[in-house]
């Protein structure tokens, strides 16, 4: 296992600094180690105060790592002041032949200073030369250049000057540019530009996640240009998946959450594919209702229809056989998805549902098997619910689940004018659904 070290600030909300860096390291398959230079007291609305780590404690942590651990890469973020810079500089002199990324964080989004003037001067003089890549944003590059940078051409000129001063490679992040955000890489020989669409939200920790991603790619053996491209693609995905931890503050991002969601989605699709094979074997056409059948399966903590997969075009019958029109897809059935979302609000581990034909014999079989059966009467729907598109079943299922003491296997109704009676079967996963279907088929 390769070990990557981050030396940076600690953000108690895990939006930036060492928690964001280690989240990235682990998500790329590396072990993350962290040494905090300071605690940046902040919440989703910005930095309130900065408190340095006791100097002797910081020195002992770095010494322990130097003596006891092999380090395969180092990321340097918030350094606070010159005392920490000097310790970091001494530490890096002993770490030879490994990639080092310096993300020179000078101020928080709300302009709270995160480094002293003397700390900045020493960072540039003693730590920058040890770095493989320095990754300032456009505002930090402006501070380093002593003049405002406001265009891609000015970013390129600044990158040339920084590399000319002894830095091996520079990435300048242009998220604060007017118009289209553009990042540039300069390795002393050529420029690579990465343009992206602006996301209309203020996201916390983007610089930390990006620079840590670059470092992970370098540790994995990528050349600098390929590390830049791969980290951009990874960060773009994180930006799209960003989320809030409060009602109106900054958005947050996480490699761990994003990767976990992607892995869960693969497991959900795999589960539905296995269930579809079992359905074809069972060939239970007698369970298919007039409106046809669909089966849905949600990821853990599903938040919307987009987190639930089902079969596009539903599951029908052709001749004497079950017929599936295609592979399962996320968002393929809002109807089944809403049922699952409603159910999961009460029983989050019950993540799968299939609708089947209403038949007294089917219900009788379910009773014989000691299944928990619940009923709702569609004729008792309030008129305001009955007339609201997509709200009717959500309301009725919620009403049932509020009155029962344990999760029902079946929730059924006898229909209403223009609405077919339906049995809805629920389970933890699709294979459990098919087992229940086999148990109750007439």
Describe the structure.
There is one protein chain. The chain is of the alpha/beta class and 442 residues long. It has 14 helices and 20 strands. The chain has helices at 17-27, 55-68, 82-93, 117-127, 138-145, 152-164, 206-219, 224-240, 255-282, 334-346, 360-368, 383-386, 392-403, 430-440, and strands at 3-10, 31-43, 46-52, 73-76, 100-102, 133-134, 170-172, 182-186, 191-195, 243-244, 251-252, 295-298, 308-310, 315-318, 321-324, 329-330, 352-357, 373-375, 410-413, 422-427.
Short description:
The chain is an alpha/beta fold and 442 residues long. The chain has helices spanning 17-27, 55-68, 82-93, 117-127, 138-145, 152-164, 206-219, 224-240, 255-282, 334-346, 360-368, 383-386, 392-403, 430-440; strands at 3-10, 31-43, 46-52, 73-76, 100-102, 133-134, 170-172, 182-186, 191-195, 243-244, 251-252, 295-298, 308-310, 315-318, 321-324, 329-330, 352-357, 373-375, 410-413, 422-427.
Structural class of the helix and strand makeup? alpha/beta
Q: What is the CATH domain class of the largest domain?
A: Alpha Beta
- The CATH H-level superfamily of the largest domain is Ribokinase
The strand count comes to: 20
List keywords for this structure.
14 helices; L-fuculose-1-phosphate Aldolase; 2 domains; about 40% helix; UDP-N-acetylmuramoyl-L-alanine:D-glutamate ligase; alpha/beta
């Amino acid at each position: 296992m390769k070990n990557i070290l981050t030396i940076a600030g600690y953000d108690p909300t895990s939006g930036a600094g060492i928690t964001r860096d280690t989240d990235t390291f682990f998500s790329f398959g590396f072990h993350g180690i962290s040494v905090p230079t300071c605690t940046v007291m902040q919440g989703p609305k910005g930095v309130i105060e900065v408190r340095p780590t006791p100097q002797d404690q910081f020195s002992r942590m770095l010494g322990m790592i130097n003596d006891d651990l092999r380090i395969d890469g180092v990321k340097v973020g918030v350094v606070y002041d010159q005392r920490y810079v000097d310790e970091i500089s001494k530490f890096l002199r002993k770490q030879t032949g490994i990639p080092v990324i310096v993300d020179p964080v000078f101020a928080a989004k709300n302009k709270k200073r995160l480094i002293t003037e003397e700390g900045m001067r020493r960072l540039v003089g003693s730590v920058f030369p040890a770095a493989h890549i320095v990754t300032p944003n456009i505002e930090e590059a402006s501070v380093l250049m002593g003049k405002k940078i406001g265009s891609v051409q000015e970013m390129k000129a600044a990158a040339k000057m920084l590399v000319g001063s002894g830095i091996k490679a520079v990435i300048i992040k242009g998220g604060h540019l007017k118009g289209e955000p553009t990042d540039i890489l300069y390795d002393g020989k050529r420029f690579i530009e990465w343009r992206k669409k602006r996301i209309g939200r203020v996201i916390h920790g983007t610089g930390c996640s990006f620079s840590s991603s670059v470092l992970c790619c370098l540790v994995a053996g990528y050349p600098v240009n390929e590390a830049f491209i791969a980290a951009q693609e990874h960060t773009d995905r994180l930006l799209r998946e960003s989320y809030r931890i409060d009602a109106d503050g900054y958005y947050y991002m996480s490699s761990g959450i994003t990767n976990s969601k992607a892995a869960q989605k693969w497991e959900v699709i795999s589960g539905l594919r296995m269930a579809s094979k079992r359905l074809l074997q069972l060939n239970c056409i007698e369970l298919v209702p007039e409106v046809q059948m669909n089966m849905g399966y949600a990821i853990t903590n599903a938040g919307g229809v987009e987190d639930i997969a089902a079969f596009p075009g539903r599951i029908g019958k052709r001749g004497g056989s079950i017929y599936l029109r295609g592979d399962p897809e996320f968002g393929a059935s809002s109807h089944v998805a809403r049922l699952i979302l409603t159910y999961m609000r009460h029983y989050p581990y019950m993540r799968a549902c299939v609708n089947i034909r209403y038949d007294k014999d089917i219900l009788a079989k379910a009773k014989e098997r000691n299944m928990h059966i619940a009923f709702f009467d569609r004729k008792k729907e309030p008129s305001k619910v009955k007339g609201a598109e997509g709200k009717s079943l959500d309301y009725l299922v919620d009403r049932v689940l509020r009155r029962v003491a344990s999760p029902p296997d079946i929730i059924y109704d006898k229909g209403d004018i223009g609405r077919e009676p339906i049995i809805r079967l629920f389970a933890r996963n699709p294979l459990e659904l098919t087992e229940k279907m086999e148990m109750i088929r007439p």
